[in-house]
Design a protein that fits this description.
It holds the Pfam family HAD_2. This protein is α/β, with parallel strands linked by helices and 253 residues long. The chain contains ten helices and nine strands. Strand 4, helix 6 and strand 5 form a beta-alpha-beta unit. Helix 1 packs across helix 2.
C-alpha cells in the first residue's frame, strides 16, 4: 500500500448520529408519497433504516418507485426532496449528537497535519453542513472539502454509485490508493470500494453486539480492509491500511 495522504469520512452515523433522526422524517414523507400513489404499504423510520441505510432520500424514492411500480413526476419528486431536507435539518439542528469518540479522533488527526480531511456523503450538502456544525466538527473541514452525492455532482446520485468518491478524488487531486474512506453502511463501503479506495468499516453506531458483528462481517465480505467497533481504534486501523494488512479490530472491552 502506498502512502495515505487523504482521509474521507462518511457523515451519517460515522461522524454524526443522524440516521435515526433523518429516517423519522423520511418515514413521514415516504408514507405520504405511498399514500398519494394509492399504495397501502407504510414504513417506520426503523424499517427504512434496515432496508435503505446509506442511501439518500432521492435514492430511497427511486427504490420505492421501482419496488411498488409507480412513477412520481419530476417536479413533484424535487418538491419531496426539498421538503425532506428541510424536515431532517430541523431535527438535526435540534437533536444531533456526535458518534462516540469521533470528535476526539478528528481533533487528533487534524492537529497532526499529516493528512487532508474531507467529508464524502450521500446526503444533501445543507444537511451534512448542518450535522457537522451542530456537533462542532465543521472546524476540521474546509467548506470546499465537503462532498455530497445529492448536491456536488452534475447529476445527483447516491452511494453505492462511486461517482461521489471519484469526484472527491478529482477535487482533492489524489489517486484512490492515496486515500482511505471510513464508512458504516453497505452502500457507502461499496461506493468507495468501486472507486478503488480502501475502506475502514465503522460499526460502532449499530445497536447491539450481534448487529455490530454481523455488519462487520458484511462490510468485510464486501472488501473493507479493517473494522473498527470504536473510534478509539481509528489509529490502529489507519496503520493497518498503510501497512497493507487486513484485519478486524476486536471490540474494546
Amino acid at each position: 500500500m502506498g502512502k495515505i495522504t487523504e482521509i474521507f469520512f462518511d457523515c451519517d452515523n460515522t461522524l454524526v448520529l443522524s440516521e435515526e433522526l433523518a429516517f423519522e422524517a423520511c418515514a413521514e414523507l415516504a408514507n405520504e408519497l405511498l399514500a398519494d400513489n394509492n399504495i397501502p404499504e407504510r414504513y417506520t423510520g426503523e424499517q427504512l433504516i434496515k432496508e435503505f441505510v446509506g442511501q439518500n432520500f432521492r435514492g430511497m424514492m427511486v427504490s420505492l418507485q421501482a419496488l411498488y411500480k409507480f412513477e412520481v413526476p419530476l417536479d413533484q419528486f424535487e418538491k419531496y426532496v426539498t421538503k425532506e431536507e428541510d424536515m431532517v435539518i430541523a431535527k438535526l439542528e435540534a437533536k444531533a449528537q456526535p458518534c462516540v469518540g469521533a470528535s476526539e479522533e478528528l481533533e487528533k488527526v487534524y492537529n497532526e497535519k499529516k493528512y487532508g480531511l474531507a467529508v464524502v456523503s450521500s446526503s444533501a450538502l445543507r444537511r451534512v453542513i448542518a450535522s457537522i456544525k451542530k456537533v462542532g466538527q465543521d472546524k476540521y473541514f474546509d467548506e470546499d472539502k465537503i462532498f455530497s452525492a445529492a448536491s456536488s455532482l452534475p447529476k445527483p446520485t447516491s452511494k453505492p454509485d462511486p461517482a461521489i468518491y471519484l469526484h472527491a478524488l478529482e477535487k482533492v487531486g489524489k489517486k484512490a490508493e492515496e486515500a482511505v474512506a471510513i464508512e458504516d453502511s453497505k452502500s457507502g463501503a461499496l461506493s468507495a470500494i468501486r472507486a478503488g479506495i480502501p475502506v475502514i468499516a465503522y460499526v460502532g453506531s449499530y445497536k447491539g453486539e450481534d448487529v455490530q458483528k454481523e455488519m462487520a462481517q458484511t462490510l468485510t465480505d464486501l472488501g473493507a480492509r479493517c473494522v473498527m467497533y470504536n473510534w478509539s481504534d481509528f489509529q490502529k486501523c489507519l496503520q493497518t491500511i498503510e501497512e497493507g494488512r487486513a484485519t478486524d479490530i476486536q471490540p474494546s472491552l
